[in-house]
Amino acid sequence: MNAPRLIKLKIVLEYCAFSRATLYRQIKAGHFPEPVRLTGGLNDANAVSRSVAWREEEILQWMANRQRVPLSETRKVEQKSSSL
């Protein structure tokens, strides 16, 4: 059995094409997988850790579950953006 691969923030942002702020908003809203703590005690809920990563399979599953957008709809969005 393969061990789950953990990926850091930079890679997650590349996968999802989100800004850092958008990513954390999506996590807070419950729309994106939460990171896992890499440092600190596993049983210490009060441990403060800045070192986190995401399980790659959760990110890939999140991406696979995104609804596809027809090309005709993406053109409408592009036209609205360029007219601003």
From TrEMBL:
A Pfam family cross-referenced in the UniProt record is Phage_AlpA
* InterPro entries noted in UniProt: AlpA
- Taxonomically, which superkingdom? Bacteria
Origin species: Salmonella diarizonae
Name assigned to this protein: AlpA family phage regulatory protein
